[in-house]
C-alpha cells in the first residue's frame, strides 16, 4: 500500500503552520503518512494538481493564491465552498475525482463551541468587525448557525455593503466609527480584521455597549491575547482566542485523507505555540 501524502499548496508557503499541525496528528495517531509544504506559482497550479494524485497524494490544503481557482477545477464542491467561491481543503479520490471544501467557517464555529459549550448563536444578534476574506466565512457560518441578525462594521464601508448584499437582509451594516448600536444586545462579537496582529496597529475601536456575558472572539492569534480580547474581557465578555479556529478547520481534511478524526487538544495548542 502507498504511504498517503498530503500537503498545503500556496505561494509563498514558508509561513504556513499546517505542516506542524498535521505532522503532530500523524505522529500522535501513528499514521505512516506525510504532510508537506508545496510552493506552487499560480500558473503551475492546475498541472501540479493533476499530477499530485499520481505521486501518492490523497489530498491537499490550498491557500493564497489558489483558493478560488481550486473551486473551479474541482469535480465536486461542497455547498459552503460554493457559497464562499473558494476552497481550502481538497480530497483526491481513487477514481480521479477532486472534491473541494471550505472549512474556515466550520473551524470558527467549532472553536467557539469547544471553548464555550453554553454558546448558542441563535440566542441573539452578532456583531462582526471586518469585511475581508475571513469575514465571509465567519458571516456564512454564523448565519448557518441561526444568528437572527448580523451587524457588520468595516473601515471601508463599501466592502461591508457588498457582503450585506451577498448574504441578504439579516446582515445590517453599522458605521465603523459608531459601533455602539451594533454591540448593544449582541451575544457574539467577532474581530475578523487584522488589527491587533503582531506588526499591525491595535484594535482600538471602543466597545461601549458590549453586553457583559457576550462571547467575544478574535481571528487574530499572534499574539493570543489580542488588544480586542483584552478590551472585550475588561467590558465583561467571555473571550475565545483565534488559535482554535486554525486547529479545528484542519479536522475535516485530516479525517478525509488519513481516515482518523483527530482531536484538538491542549497538547496540540502547545505544539503550535512553540516558536
Ligand atoms: P483581508 O481580506 O486582508 O481583510 C482585512 C480586514 O482587516 C479588512 O476588513 C480591513 O478593512 C481590516 N483592516 C486592516 N487594517 C485595518 C486598519 N488599520 N483599520 C481598520 N481595519 C483594518 O484579511 P483576512 O483574510 O480577512 O484576514 C483577517 C485576519 O484574520 C488576519 O489577521 C488573518 O491572519 C486572520 N485569520 C485567522 C484565521 C484563523 O484560523 N484564526 C483564519 C483566517 C484569517 P478594509 O476593508 O477597510 O481594508
Strand content: 15-25%
Distance between the termini: 36 Å
Low-confidence stretches: none
The number of distinct β-strands equals 12
Overall mean pLDDT = 97
Number of helices: 12
**Radius of gyration from CA coordinates:** 19 Å
CATH class of the largest domain equals Alpha Beta
Name the CATH homologous superfamily of the largest domain.
NAD(P)-binding Rossmann-like Domain
CATH architecture of the largest domain: 3-Layer(aba) Sandwich
Largest sheet: 6 strands, mixed
- What small molecules does this complex bind? NADP nicotinamide-adenine-dinucleotide phosphate
What is the approximate shape? globular
Q: What is the H/E order?
A: EHEHEHEHEEHEHEHEHEEHEHHH
Range of helix content: 25-40%
Which sequence of strands runs across the widest sheet? 2-1-3-5-6-4
Tell me briefly what this model is.
This protein is of the alpha/beta class and 275 residues long.
Key words describing this protein structure:
binds NADP nicotinamide-adenine-dinucleotide phosphate; Rossmann fold; 12 helices; 275 residues; 2 domains; globular
What is the fold's blueprint, element by element?
Elements lengths: L4 E6 L7 H11 L5 E6 L5 H7 L5 E6 L4 H7 L2 E2 L1 H6 L4 E4 L5 E4 L2 H12 L10 E4 L3 H12 L5 E4 L3 H11 L3 E4 L5 H4 L4 E4 L23 E4 L8 H8 L3 E3 L2 H7 L1 H8 L7 H8 L2
Parallel strand pairs: 1-2, 1-3, 4-6, 7-8, 7-10, 8-9, 10-11, 11-12
Antiparallel strand pairs: 3-5, 5-6
The protein binds NADP nicotinamide-adenine-dinucleotide phosphate (NAP).
Amino acid at each position: 500500500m502507498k504511504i498517503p501524502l498530503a500537503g498545503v499548496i500556496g505561494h509563498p508557503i514558508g509561513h504556513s503552520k499546517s505542516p506542524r499541525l498535521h505532522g503532530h496528528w500523524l505522529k500522535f495517531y501513528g499514521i505512516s503518512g506525510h504532510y508537506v509544504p508545496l510552493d506552487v506559482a499560480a500558473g503551475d497550479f492546475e498541472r501540479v494538481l493533476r499530477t499530485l494524485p499520481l505521486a501518492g497524494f490523497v489530498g491537499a490544503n490550498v491557500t493564497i493564491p489558489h483558493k478560488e481557482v481550486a473551486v473551479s477545477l474541482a469535480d465536486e464542491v461542497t455547498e459552503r465552498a460554493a457559497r464562499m467561491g473558494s476552497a481550502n481543503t481538497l480530497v483526491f479520490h481513487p477514481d480521479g475525482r477532486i472534491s473541494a471544501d471550505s472549512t474556515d467557517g466550520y473551524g470558527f464555529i467549532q472553536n467557539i463551541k469547544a471553548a464555550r459549550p453554553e454558546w448558542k448563536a441563535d440566542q441573539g444578534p452578532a456583531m462582526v468587525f471586518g469585511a475581508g476574506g475571513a469575514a465571509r466565512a465567519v458571516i456564512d457560518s454564523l448565519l448557518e448557525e441561526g444568528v437572527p441578525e448580523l451587524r457588520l462594521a468595516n473601515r471601508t464601508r463599501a466592502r461591508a455593503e457588498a457582503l450585506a448584499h451577498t448574504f441578504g437582509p439579516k446582515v445590517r451594516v453599522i458605521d465603523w466609527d459608531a459601533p455602539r448600536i451594533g454591540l448593544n444586545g449582541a451575544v457574539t462579537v467577532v474581530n475578523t480584521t487584522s488589527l491587533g496582529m503582531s506588526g499591525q496597529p491595535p484594535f482600538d475601536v471602543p466597545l461601549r455597549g458590549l453586553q457583559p456575558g457576550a462571547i467575544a472572539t478574535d481571528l487574530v492569534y499572534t499574539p493570543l491575547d489580542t488588544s480586542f480580547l483584552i478590551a472585550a474581557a475588561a467590558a465583561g465578555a467571555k473571550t475565545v482566542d483565534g488559535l482554535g479556529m486554525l486547529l479545528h478547520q484542519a479536522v475535516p481534511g485530516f479525517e478525509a485523507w488519513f481516515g482518523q478524526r483527530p482531536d484538538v487538544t491542549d497538547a496540540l495548542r502547545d505544539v503550535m505555540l512553540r516558536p
